[in-house]
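Worked example

This section walks through a single chain of length 241. The input is the sequence exactly as stored; nothing has been trimmed or padded.
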Amino acid sequence: LMRDQHADDGRIGPLFSGTPYNQGIATLALLAWCEAHPGAARPPAVERAVQYIVAAQDGSGGWGYAEGDPEPNVSITIWQVQALHRAVGLGLTEAEPALRRGLRWLKSVRNAEGLYGYRRPDDFPEGPDTLTAMGLYGELAGDPRAADRPEIRQSLRHLTSDPAAVERPSSYYAAYFLTRVLQQAAGVEGMETLLAQVQQTLLARQVRGGAQQGSWDLEDAYAPIGGPVYTTAMAALALHD
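Given that input, the structure is written out below as tokens.
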């Protein structure tokens, strides 16, 4: 990842519409390494990667695609918010103002019923469930006491109101954010039980034999794009505490 970073601006990988996805996820990986090696010197690449995220933030507080559709959206923003939250936790306090702006933007796309839109309230091009899980995770991770707020409880009720949908999320991508929400809201009644159900469903979908043993099945909307690397990575992340 560090070899693929551009020295001039901290960008990781090529510049294309999906660069913010790459940047957020790659920066999270570098920050996770720092967390796992607290005694090691922090590579300069980490701070440059965080600085790129801060510089790319829209004036509204969110993040959008790098090319073609720069209007902020939840799917891009949540990865940047995750990275900034972890960066602040590691002492990169210069990222804190951008994190606060990002969290404010996430709140701005929640509607009166507690559902998060894609670009704005009531904007649900693929439905509200995964977007709501993303928005909730951002808010819960950013504020440990957020689960006590009435509007967050309202969003949680919407997200978990259909037990069948909760137990088998629409994609591994959705499962990742759902499990993160359930972990963050573990103190709320019923959340730990739902988390165990989701994880058991995911474990049951692991391939048990053949050339792909250990991977996760390809019954997923994004599997034709990401293949078993995507399904296995997201399922493993969803199962990780």
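What to look for: Residues 19-36 form the longest helix (18 residues).
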